[in-house]
Fold this sequence. Notes:
- This protein is mainly α.
- It is 94% helix and 0% strand.
Amino acid sequence: MAGSTLLLGLIAAATVVMAVVQIGVVVYAARLAGRVNRLVDVVEHEIKPTLARVDAVSADVAHVTSLASAQAERLDKVVGQLARQADEILTFAQDTVVKPVKQGGAFLVGLRAALVAFRRTSDASPSTSTDSVDSASGNGAVAG
């Protein structure tokens, strides 16, 4: 029996040692958890103002983005309106200036062609043109 009592004593001692080690681990884990909680509190305390600033900057960015979008839409409308008005002005200018100038140019080309034709006929037969002038005046005499 002495051997079995010794073994039981050894088992009891090992159990006590394991219980002490486990208690030490639990105490250390509790201390570590407390330190981690304090660290989290400090980090939260330090980061809260930064997060507030980030939120403010984010709101400002969203506001600026919406303003820029609205301005871009307005600019698009203005540019489109400007292009339409420029097209209307150019069309009006073409209708009121360019077409009459072209027509006047065509008239001048026709007048020039008529004058050239008239000169050719007057150069080709000078006596015929003089006779027709004299007969038109009623003189029958040849002017010299």
